[in-house]
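U., I forgot to send this yesterday:
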Amino acid sequence: MDYGLPLLKALLEHFKKLPGVGEKTARRLTFAVLAMEEEEVRDFAETLLQVKERIGSCRRCGNLAESEICEICNDSSRTDGVLCIVERPADLYILESSGQYRGRYHVLHGVLSPLDGIGPEDLNLERLEERVKEEGIREVIVATNPSIEGDTTALYISRMLKRYSVKVTRPARGLPLGSSLEYIDSGTISKALEGREPI
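Result:
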């Protein structure tokens, strides 16, 4: 798209940096912003800045948080002793949408991938081991994506936690191999969590 308007082109290019946004979607979003009231655009821009400035990681579990501890870690109604491990904060919110799981979470911020230079020291694994020791964890559900990297990470965690009296499970294989949690419906996620299997 070249209308001889550098600002329009710059906005379009910014939208194209978002995952899953191609040329056509970026164009639609660009023109949607142009159609918004000035106050809406200011509010949108301010929200983007606030999100970047104020949202960090929970020091307990690694989830997104606006303070030191996230809302899920602060929720006293949740079941202690069961820890669900996910790759990214986005996966946590997908599992939450199933309504099936009411325990605690731990976010790794990635998976083991030697080809990409990602080893155990690059993940939130040290804190995971501390939590298993300190919080009386009875079961760890490794809900990494069903991919080679996700399975490798699950196996690594299982071996890492062998010395503790903790049951390590994996959601049932109702989740298609090579898929991402983000594209799976909440019913399938519920069933996979119900039918979790030992690693």
